Amino acid sequence: MARPAKPPGAPAAAKPPPRKERVAAFQLGISAESRAAFFLITKAYRIVARRFKTPFGEIDIVARRRNDLVFVEVKARENLDDALEAVTERGKRRIVAAAEFWLARRPQDAQCTLRFDVIVMVPGKLPRHIVNAFDATR
């Protein structure tokens, strides 16, 4: 059955506001990404992009240091084990696909040494940077 047409100029149906838990999780993620970016800067990385969106997913941070181009996934959880488990195989495939999209748009970066890192943020502890946490093989 077809929907009745809405009259011209009628406002769109109001979308319900996001749940408080989703808003809190989003804000925690943004904060963790900001802290991770600062942490990388202190380690002599240059942040090239943050929250790079592609049709395949999002890369939290793209950073460069010398000839290394690093695609970074940031995870904030209550403990280290939960944060590490949050980097799933599906998530890795998504990040690799998004990195391939990046390289298709920036072929000059294909000359760099590519790497996939993870930064884990746990309350009350320094960030843990896992260099070369996974590779692009599928």
Walk me through what this model shows.
The chain has 138 residues and is α+β, with helices and mostly antiparallel strands. The longest helix has 23 residues, at 20-42. Helix content is 33%, strand content 31%. 22% of the residues are buried. Strands 1-2-3-4-5 form a five-stranded mixed sheet. It has a single domain (20-134), classed as Trna Endonuclease, Chain: A, domain 1 (3-Layer(aba) Sandwich). It has helices at residues 20-42, 80-85, 89-105; strands at 46-54, 57-65, 68-76, 113-121, 128-134.
Short description:
The protein is α+β, with helices and mostly antiparallel strands and 138 residues long. It has 3 helices and 5 strands, in the order αβββααββ.
Name of the level-1 CATH class: Alpha Beta
Radius of gyration: 19 Å
**Going across the major beta sheet, what is the strand order?**
1-2-3-4-5
**Biggest β-sheet: count, sense, barrel?**
5 strands, mixed
Tally of separate helices: 3
In sequence order, what are the helices and strands, one letter per element? HEEEHHEE
Which descriptors would you attach to this protein?
5 strands; single chain; five-stranded mixed beta sheet; Trna Endonuclease, Chain: A, domain 1; alpha+beta
What order do the helices and strands come in, and which of them pair?
Layout: H1 20-42, E1 46-54, E2 57-65, E3 68-76, H2 80-85, H3 89-105, E4 113-121, E5 128-134
Parallel strand pairs: 3-4
Antiparallel strand pairs: 1-2, 2-3, 4-5
